[in-house]
Amino acid sequence: MSRVIAIMNQKGGVGKTTTTINLGHALARAGKSVTLLDMDPQGQIATGLGLSNEQGGMDQVLLAGDALDDMVISAREQLNIVPAGNMLADFEHVTNGGSSRGKKLKNAIEASSLVEQDFILIDCPPSSGLLGVNAMFAADELIVPVSGDYLSLQGLSRMMQILKRAESLIGHQINLWLVSTRMQMRRRLTQEVRKRVLKYFPGRVFSTVIRENVSLAESPSFGKTIFDYKESSAGAEDYQSLAQDLLSGRTS
Prior knowledge:
This protein is α/β, with parallel strands linked by helices. It is about 40% helix and about 20% strand.
């Protein structure tokens, strides 16, 4: 069975989509089969990989009931995506279906060949609406990117409340991981934030720190992952290391 991992934070600007794309490519480069599902209506997974978000994707799966397999696009060797699609935001306003609305993604994954993949990474919107609920219900694991500022700690607190509520509804525990992103380690504030996260989440924080990096910021505008854009950069080194953390369960 595939490891289904939602990458989520209620705070924007923490490197959520950057992590989904580059961690996914790092895992693919390590020989794992990976599919990225874009559950964020902004549709940045496709554009960040140099592909179009104009065709149908998750919107067709969730709104029209199309098969997930029919929406899969090859992005790189061992790396596939299902783009968001232009109509994904409309799913937040769906009112019919009752509680089954929250399980549409889970059911779509289970009915697809994606269960044979090594990893399914779900890029989530920065909200706790219906799209986020679907991601939580579908996932066995959750990665929360946390940047090096105090507002990020507040976002993490909110995220933990949402996680507890989701677990009570699902009836099982979601395996939690945290990753330090956009870190400027020379700043005292950044170091203090990481210390707090390590204190309150022992054994849950990946060892690798994703450093703030110009190449990481530039690469999406060229439709490239950090490995396509600048394989010798600190960003590439960090995401390759993060992939090994995930594969081995290596934490600080």
